[in-house]
Prior knowledge:
single chain; binds zinc ion
Amino acid sequence: xxxxxxxxxxHALSLAxxxxxxxxxxxxxxxxxxxxxxxxxxLYPSGERVxxxxxxxxxxxxxxxxTNVLVRAELxxxxxxxxxxxxxxxGLSDAVVAGYKMYANMCxxxxxxxxxxxxxxxCHLKGIWAHPTASIALYPCPQCHSLYLSSIGNLSAxxxxxxxxxxxxxxxxxxxxxxxFPCRRVPVRSRHSVxxxxxxxxxx
Length: 204
Ligand SMILES: [Zn+2]
Protein backbone atom coordinates (compact mmCIF):
# COMPACT_ATOMS: atom_id res chain seq x y z
CA UNK A 1 0.00 0.00 0.00
CA UNK A 2 1.34 3.43 -0.93
CA UNK A 3 2.48 5.60 1.91
CA UNK A 4 0.35 8.67 2.73
CA UNK A 5 1.43 11.93 1.11
CA UNK A 6 2.55 13.43 4.40
CA UNK A 7 4.94 10.53 5.01
CA UNK A 8 6.33 10.73 1.48
CA UNK A 9 6.83 14.48 1.80
CA UNK A 10 8.58 14.22 5.15
CA HIS A 11 10.80 11.50 3.70
CA ALA A 12 11.61 13.72 0.71
CA LEU A 13 12.55 16.58 3.04
CA SER A 14 14.75 14.28 5.08
CA LEU A 15 16.48 13.01 1.94
CA ALA A 16 16.96 16.58 0.71
CA UNK A 17 18.67 17.57 3.94
CA UNK A 18 20.90 14.51 3.80
CA UNK A 19 21.85 15.39 0.22
CA UNK A 20 22.69 18.97 1.22
CA UNK A 21 24.93 17.70 3.97
CA UNK A 22 26.70 15.49 1.43
CA UNK A 23 27.38 18.54 -0.78
CA UNK A 24 24.88 17.82 -3.57
CA UNK A 25 23.87 20.26 -6.26
CA UNK A 26 20.27 21.44 -6.31
CA UNK A 27 19.65 19.64 -9.60
CA UNK A 28 20.81 16.38 -8.08
CA UNK A 29 18.64 16.83 -5.00
CA UNK A 30 15.62 17.62 -7.15
CA UNK A 31 16.02 14.36 -9.08
CA UNK A 32 16.49 12.30 -5.93
CA UNK A 33 13.67 13.80 -3.88
CA UNK A 34 11.17 14.85 -6.53
CA UNK A 35 11.09 18.31 -4.96
CA UNK A 36 11.19 21.23 -7.37
CA UNK A 37 13.94 23.85 -7.37
CA UNK A 38 11.40 26.33 -6.01
CA UNK A 39 10.52 24.04 -3.12
CA UNK A 40 14.17 23.41 -2.36
CA UNK A 41 15.03 27.10 -2.49
CA UNK A 42 12.38 27.78 0.17
CA LEU A 43 14.01 25.28 2.51
CA TYR A 44 17.34 27.07 2.43
CA PRO A 45 17.40 30.87 2.24
CA SER A 46 19.73 32.16 -0.47
CA GLY A 47 22.05 33.66 2.13
CA GLU A 48 22.93 30.19 3.37
CA ARG A 49 24.43 29.27 -0.04
CA VAL A 50 24.13 25.55 0.55
CA UNK A 51 23.70 24.56 -3.10
CA UNK A 52 26.60 24.15 -5.50
CA UNK A 53 26.33 25.47 -9.03
CA UNK A 54 27.31 23.79 -12.28
CA UNK A 55 26.17 20.98 -14.51
CA UNK A 56 26.71 17.28 -14.39
CA UNK A 57 28.59 15.63 -17.28
CA UNK A 58 26.30 14.44 -20.07
CA UNK A 59 28.05 11.15 -20.82
CA UNK A 60 29.89 8.39 -19.03
CA UNK A 61 33.12 9.00 -21.02
CA UNK A 62 34.69 10.67 -18.01
CA UNK A 63 34.03 7.52 -16.07
CA UNK A 64 35.66 5.06 -18.43
CA UNK A 65 38.39 7.04 -20.16
CA UNK A 66 39.04 10.24 -18.28
CA THR A 67 39.72 9.19 -14.72
CA ASN A 68 42.72 7.60 -13.09
CA VAL A 69 42.77 4.09 -11.72
CA LEU A 70 42.19 5.18 -8.12
CA VAL A 71 39.05 7.13 -8.96
CA ARG A 72 37.76 4.31 -11.15
CA ALA A 73 38.24 1.88 -8.29
CA GLU A 74 36.25 4.06 -5.91
CA LEU A 75 33.51 4.54 -8.51
CA UNK A 76 33.23 0.76 -8.78
CA UNK A 77 33.10 0.42 -5.00
CA UNK A 78 30.25 2.92 -4.76
CA UNK A 79 28.41 1.21 -7.64
CA UNK A 80 28.74 -2.19 -5.97
CA UNK A 81 27.37 -0.85 -2.68
CA UNK A 82 24.54 0.96 -4.47
CA UNK A 83 23.51 -2.17 -6.37
CA UNK A 84 23.70 -4.30 -3.26
CA UNK A 85 21.32 -1.91 -1.49
CA UNK A 86 18.93 -2.02 -4.45
CA UNK A 87 19.00 -5.82 -4.27
CA UNK A 88 18.16 -5.45 -0.56
CA UNK A 89 14.95 -3.61 -1.46
CA UNK A 90 16.18 -0.08 -0.86
CA GLY A 91 14.45 2.48 -3.04
CA LEU A 92 16.66 4.18 -5.62
CA SER A 93 16.77 7.49 -3.74
CA ASP A 94 17.55 5.89 -0.40
CA ALA A 95 20.16 3.64 -2.02
CA VAL A 96 22.07 6.59 -3.50
CA VAL A 97 22.20 8.47 -0.20
CA ALA A 98 22.87 5.46 2.03
CA GLY A 99 25.29 3.97 -0.49
CA TYR A 100 27.33 7.15 -0.70
CA LYS A 101 27.54 7.39 3.09
CA MET A 102 28.70 3.77 3.29
CA TYR A 103 31.24 4.31 0.52
CA ALA A 104 32.60 7.50 2.16
CA ASN A 105 32.82 5.79 5.55
CA MET A 106 34.90 2.94 4.18
CA CYS A 107 37.45 5.21 2.48
CA UNK A 108 40.72 5.27 4.39
CA UNK A 109 41.12 8.99 3.57
CA UNK A 110 38.99 11.67 1.91
CA UNK A 111 36.73 10.15 -0.71
CA UNK A 112 37.76 10.80 -4.30
CA UNK A 113 34.30 11.04 -5.76
CA UNK A 114 31.70 13.63 -4.86
CA UNK A 115 28.07 12.88 -4.15
CA UNK A 116 27.14 14.38 -7.51
CA UNK A 117 29.54 12.00 -9.28
CA UNK A 118 28.09 9.07 -7.37
CA UNK A 119 24.61 10.19 -8.40
CA UNK A 120 25.78 10.28 -12.00
CA UNK A 121 27.09 6.73 -11.72
CA UNK A 122 23.71 5.60 -10.35
CA CYS A 123 21.96 7.29 -13.29
CA HIS A 124 24.21 5.72 -15.95
CA LEU A 125 24.09 2.35 -14.22
CA LYS A 126 20.33 2.01 -13.84
CA GLY A 127 19.13 4.29 -16.64
CA ILE A 128 17.30 6.64 -14.30
CA TRP A 129 16.81 10.33 -13.53
CA ALA A 130 19.28 12.45 -15.53
CA HIS A 131 20.29 9.58 -17.85
CA PRO A 132 17.24 7.44 -18.77
CA THR A 133 19.32 4.93 -20.76
CA ALA A 134 21.79 2.67 -18.97
CA SER A 135 25.30 2.97 -20.44
CA ILE A 136 27.51 1.27 -17.88
CA ALA A 137 27.33 -1.96 -15.90
CA LEU A 138 29.08 -3.85 -13.12
CA TYR A 139 30.92 -6.94 -14.29
CA PRO A 140 32.71 -9.62 -12.25
CA CYS A 141 36.39 -9.74 -13.12
CA PRO A 142 37.35 -13.24 -14.27
CA GLN A 143 40.80 -12.80 -12.73
CA CYS A 144 40.29 -11.25 -9.27
CA HIS A 145 36.49 -11.69 -8.99
CA SER A 146 35.91 -8.05 -8.02
CA LEU A 147 32.97 -6.16 -9.45
CA TYR A 148 34.16 -3.36 -11.70
CA LEU A 149 32.41 -0.70 -13.78
CA SER A 150 32.67 -0.75 -17.54
CA SER A 151 30.66 0.44 -20.49
CA ILE A 152 27.93 -2.03 -21.35
CA GLY A 153 29.30 -4.92 -23.37
CA ASN A 154 32.96 -4.03 -22.79
CA LEU A 155 34.45 -7.20 -21.32
CA SER A 156 38.09 -6.36 -21.98
CA ALA A 157 38.92 -7.20 -18.36
CA UNK A 158 38.55 -10.86 -19.31
CA UNK A 159 41.98 -10.62 -20.90
CA UNK A 160 43.49 -7.43 -19.51
CA UNK A 161 42.36 -7.55 -15.88
CA UNK A 162 40.09 -5.01 -14.19
CA UNK A 163 40.90 -1.83 -12.30
CA UNK A 164 41.40 -3.81 -9.09
CA UNK A 165 43.83 -6.16 -10.86
CA UNK A 166 45.87 -3.10 -11.78
CA UNK A 167 45.77 -1.81 -8.22
CA UNK A 168 46.96 -5.18 -6.94
CA UNK A 169 49.78 -5.27 -9.46
CA UNK A 170 51.00 -1.82 -8.37
CA UNK A 171 50.24 -2.14 -4.67
CA UNK A 172 53.75 -2.83 -3.34
CA UNK A 173 55.35 0.11 -5.15
CA UNK A 174 52.61 2.78 -5.05
CA UNK A 175 52.15 4.64 -1.73
CA UNK A 176 48.89 6.17 -2.93
CA UNK A 177 47.32 2.74 -3.34
CA UNK A 178 48.71 1.61 0.00
CA UNK A 179 47.13 4.69 1.63
CA UNK A 180 43.87 4.03 -0.16
CA PHE A 181 43.72 0.39 0.95
CA PRO A 182 45.90 0.05 4.05
CA CYS A 183 46.91 -3.49 4.81
CA ARG A 184 45.22 -5.20 7.68
CA ARG A 185 47.34 -6.69 10.44
CA VAL A 186 46.93 -10.18 9.00
CA PRO A 187 47.87 -11.30 6.40
CA VAL A 188 49.85 -8.20 5.44
CA ARG A 189 50.90 -9.19 1.94
CA SER A 190 47.74 -10.97 0.89
CA ARG A 191 47.02 -10.28 -2.76
CA HIS A 192 43.35 -10.34 -1.86
CA SER A 193 43.61 -7.52 0.67
CA VAL A 194 42.49 -4.80 -1.72
CA UNK A 195 39.37 -6.63 -2.82
CA UNK A 196 38.58 -7.81 0.69
CA UNK A 197 38.67 -4.26 2.00
CA UNK A 198 36.59 -2.98 -0.88
CA UNK A 199 33.81 -5.51 -0.25
CA UNK A 200 33.10 -5.71 -3.93
CA UNK A 201 33.98 -9.28 -4.70
CA UNK A 202 31.39 -10.87 -6.92
CA UNK A 203 31.08 -14.08 -4.92
CA UNK A 204 30.38 -12.50 -1.51
ZN1 LIG B 1 40.29 -7.90 -11.55
